[in-house]
């Protein structure tokens, strides 16, 4: 770390650029100390952004069936862990279309913000107010399209002091090149990049906590997972 006394030189030195050198920890070269921030079901909220009928037609980095399965799997997991959830759409009376009905039905009592035009959900005061009212500091974000409707509010939330976790397989865009560029941009800003399955497992923490309940959820959205549950049930 650079001593404060050295950093004060910046005030008198005009355009002085100081770069911290990487340090080595257990043989691994690192740019800064790492702290593993885990998702907590007591401090996390979920933001489902612009999963709209028109926008979803733009998603080409997943097949339609696979993408729908992933989005609904994330939604089911969020519901299972009873996380505060916020739904939002952008310009839904235009070509973007309405929110997909499955999400509206699953979260009938959740805050629903139909943004009149703001591309970045974080530019909408009602949306930000809803986020703040959850009292949570960890935000799980998924949406369409990845580099815009997901990345913009994710970066804004990081700037506002939140820990942000973007769900890669419940967010979609035009192609894999665009997707990976968006992931890289967000990761560089401190966003954690995860899958819906990773989110569920990190929230769950311990397989001994209701394996039947979570296992049933996994079995519904991961066909091959049914083999694990079937084997487990037979052994019991």
From TrEMBL:
Isochorismatase-like domain segment(s): 45-196
Keyword terms: Hydrolase
A Pfam family matched in the record: Isochorismatase
CDD domains in the cross-refs: YcaC_related
Keyword Transmembrane helix: no
Top-rank lineage group of the source organism: Bacteria
Regions annotated as coiled coil: none
Keyword Protease: no
Alphabetized GO MF terms: hydrolase activity
Protein name per Swiss-Prot or TrEMBL: Isochorismatase hydrolase
Organism this protein belongs to: Desulfococcus multivorans DSM 2059
């Amino acid at each position: 770390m650079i001593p404060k006394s050295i950093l004060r030189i910046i005030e008198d030195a005009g355009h002085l650029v100081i770069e911290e050198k990487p340090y080595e920890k257990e043989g691994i070269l690192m740019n800064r100390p790492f702290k593993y921030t885990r998702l907590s079901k007591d401090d996390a909220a979920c933001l489902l952004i612009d999963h709209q009928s028109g926008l979803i037609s733009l998603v080409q980095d997943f097949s339609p069936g696979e993408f729908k399965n992933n989005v609904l799997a994330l939604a089911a997991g969020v519901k299972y862990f009873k996380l505060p959830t916020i739904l939002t759409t952008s310009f839904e009376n235009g070509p973007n279309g309405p929110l997909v009905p499955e999400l509206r039905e699953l979260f009938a009592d959740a805050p629903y913000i139909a943004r009149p035009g703001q591309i970045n959900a974080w530019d909408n005061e009602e949306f930000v107010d809803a986020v703040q009212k959850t009292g949570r500091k960890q935000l799980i974000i998924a949406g369409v399209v990845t580099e815009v409707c997901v990345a913009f509010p994710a970066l804004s939330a990081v700037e506002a002091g939140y820990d942000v976790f973007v769900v890669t397989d419940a967010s979609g865009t035009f192609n894999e090149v665009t997707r990976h560029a968006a992931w890289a941009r967000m990761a560089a800003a401190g966003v954690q990049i995860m899958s819906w399955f990773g989110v569920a497992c990190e929230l769950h923490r311990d397989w001994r906590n209701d394996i039947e309940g979570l296992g049933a959820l996994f079995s519904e959205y991961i066909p091959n997972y049914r083999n694990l549950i079937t084997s487990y049930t037979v052994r019991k």
